[in-house]
Amino acid sequence: MKRALVMLGGGARGSYAAGVVAHLIAELGINYEILCGVSVGALNAGMLATFDAFHGRDAVASLLRVWRSLGPKSIRKRWGILGVLHALWRTSVYDSSPLIDLVKGRMDAAMIRSSGRHLSVLAVSLTTGEHRMFDHTHPSIVDAVLASSSFPAMFNPIEIDGQLWTDGGLRNESLLKHAIAAGATHIDVVMTAPKASVTPFSPRPNVIDVAIRAIDVLGDSIAEYDVRMTLMINSLVAQGLGDRRHIDVRVFRPTERLPARSLDFDPAAIRRMIEIGQRDAAIIAG
Description:
Layout: E1 3-7, H1 14-27, E2 34-38, H2 40-48, H3 56-68, H4 72-75, H5 97-106, H6 109-114, E3 118-125, E4 131-135, H7 141-148, E5 158-160, E6 163-167, H8 175-181, E7 186-190, H9 207-238, E8 248-252, H10 267-285
Parallel strand pairs: 1-2, 1-7, 2-3, 7-8
Antiparallel strand pairs: 3-4, 3-6, 5-6
Helix pairs in contact: 1-3, 1-10, 2-7
């Protein structure tokens, strides 16, 4: 049996996922040999992958410390006195160097490679349009984690191998497929949006509101499709059809609308989302 943890996007709502894995790893003692992530899920997966499987509780404690220390200034800042107008000659609306510094100060490629875990993160090249899964063997795996979590147009794209890379949630690429290819027989998927959720939208949105909303909707729909396809394949296998093998899949997702949008890194909301994640994981895992 080989377990995989697949974590999807959602910006600040990634704190919910941290709460889920806190229960699964620290409370239930589940060992995940395979970690796959996209967007903020790549950050969570990368943080966990800096610890080996025998130090899962330490990995969770470190992840929760990071989330509980965050605020808006920990993630991004304005480019200058003209605010978002600087985006007219920059590659992003915000300067996400605070997030880049935070991740590079806590994540190390050598530690990831020596952890014994398989880490995969998805990113998209702005240069060529290519989508690519970077794994723990890539020398720039930390940059790949940052690229995958680079909110499109909002945060700095990351240069890897002469190309600019951004959030992998822009492409319909199956993380579950990669987990299965890595040998997973049991997969826990952590999503950050309730099923069939309708998030209230500002009655007078600006262009940033619209961009964030569009990316959230796209990412959520891709994740929904990914899970549905895997469950459909399982159904066919159960009927003796096809040549695939059955994969045990559990989906962890909010039972209520979370109290923050993707880029709302409010400390009180983050703490509340961690608590909701822990509670939901306890209910779903039984």
